[in-house]
Amino acid sequence: MEIRSAATVDARVHAAYLSAEVHRLALHDDASAKKKLDLAVRAHQDDPRAHIAKLADLLSIHKNLVSIVDIVGHLDLQSTLG
Hints:
Layout: H1 2-5, H2 9-26, H3 30-43, H4 48-61, H5 65-81
Helix pairs in contact: 2-3, 3-4
């Protein structure tokens, strides 16, 4: 509720990110956490917190160097495309 009713964009992003962390750490609900991170990205594309959390999640899944290089290459491609 707080995510949608916050007065400023920064407050909405903060609420979405905090909710994602609560779902991930306290409730052990990764699916809901990812949805909350998506809300944070949509609320303010330039806020780095959700992007960094998504990158950390990807890095935790992929253990070998080849996969990490693929992820970084994908991120570079995404920033180039817009």
